[in-house]
Amino acid sequence: MMEHIATTPFGGGRMSARLFLRQREAAERQEKLRAGDGGNDSGRADKWQLMRALTEARQAYGIGDRTISVLEALVSFTTARELDGTAPIIVFPSNRELSVRARGMAPATIRRHLAALVEAGMIFRRDSANGKRYCRRDDNGVLEEAFGFDLAPLALRAGEIFEAAEAARAEDRAIRALRSEVTLHQRDIAKIVACALEEERAGDWLGFSDRLAALVFGLGRRTAANILAARRDELLRLRADVENAYLSSLSEQEMSANDLQDEQHIQNSKPDQPFEPYGRESHKGEAADAEGRAPEQKMALSLGRLVRICPQIADYAKDGIRSWADLLAAAELARSMLGISPDAWRKAKAAMGSQAAAVVIAAMLERGEAIRSPGGYLRNLTEKAGRAAFSIYPMLQALERAQA
């Protein structure tokens, strides 16, 4: 094993106090590890797991992805899977071979990234007297002396790098959660404001819209966590203002939900009563009531099956959906969140029947953003139902096939 290796850079490279101290600290740690005084720190690590961890933690060390590509190329010149930092790990590739393994990177670019790796303390330069990289072996092929790049510092910092990678993952999870919260609040506020404007509710809805636009302006994939957290808190306050304004705009009749109670009165109280998911098909002898509403139809679909096909509607029910009355109440709330006006909703129930209209709302929730204008979509189905040309069943079948 080599006892004396060069520590100063060849040519115009300058020696610094920080580089000297790093080399000395590394040598002292290696001596302790070889003596068995390292404790839980072995100074060893799987080289590819270590490279993955450093990639995740690269911002903590101020190095970029191309610098890591050069380090990965250097690591590829080691034969063992494990990097053992208890002794120097010197690789000595030619400039040409290093460029090939760095995906054809130009020599000048490679030199810049090598300097960045030295500055970050990931490698040491072990330059020969003439600056060339090579090794000497004895008659038995055992390595006696080598000059090139020492990867031991990378292995010695393995524990620190793994901890930094875990911290980076935790921060990334936190940022993703914050970004998701901001997106959900933004969507809900925008839909409530749009619904209020469509229904011509009293309130400063344009003012709310301007506040929302100001809060989401400038947010992107690289927005810092502290900025996202501040925007989330502001959106929460705006959401409370918007929801309170919308509730304040509701009439006493809407708040008491008398219409909904009247519609529930004509439902069959059996929670799993089947119904036929077709449009305006009355039983023999039945006729529309004095208000022009279609009678409730008997539909060949159980409530349990409907909830399995359209599970999102349950998110709008306070205590789950255990009866058709629960479904109607959930649909009433969901249509408001979808931006469907009370007029369009009233006409849909009149043309299809309340249960069928509620099933349509449940199916629309499952289709999500595929329906760009929920209000227009429902009006189109209402018009078809008025001509007895509408059936819910194909819509539900399509959803079932998609789930399967």
What does the model show?
The structure is a single chain. With 404 residues, the chain is mainly alpha-helical. It has 3 domains: 17-156, Winged helix-like DNA-binding domain superfamily/Winged helix DNA-binding domain (Arc Repressor Mutant, subunit A), CATH 1.10.10; 169-249; 253-403, no CATH class. The protein is 57% helix and 6% strand. It has 18 helices and 6 strands. The chain has helices spanning 17-34, 47-56, 58-61, 65-75, 95-101, 107-119, 152-156, 158-198, 205-216, 225-249, 252-256, 258-265, 303-309, 324-337, 342-352, 354-367, 374-386, 393-403; strands spanning 44-46, 82-84, 90-91, 124-126, 134-137, 143-150. The strands form 2 sheets. Strands 3, 4, 5 and 6 form a 4-stranded antiparallel beta sheet that branches. β5 (134-137) and β6 form a beta hairpin. α9 runs antiparallel to α10. The chain is elongated and about 95 Å long. The two termini are 64 Å apart. Residues 1-6 and 257-299 have low confidence and may be disordered.
Number of domains: 3
**Number of contiguous helices:** 18
Helix content: 55-70%
The secondary-structure class comes to mainly alpha
Distance between the termini: 64 Å
Question: SSE string, helix = H, strand = E?
Answer: HEHHHEEHHEEEHHHHHHHHHHHH
Number of strands: 6
Q: How large is the share of residues in beta strands?
A: 5-15%
User: What is the molecular shape?
Assistant: elongated
Residue-averaged pLDDT, rounded? 80
What is the gyration radius calculated from CA atoms? 35 Å
**Sheet with the most strands, sense and barrel status:** 4 strands, antiparallel
Residue windows where pLDDT falls under 50 for at least 5 positions: 1-6, 257-299
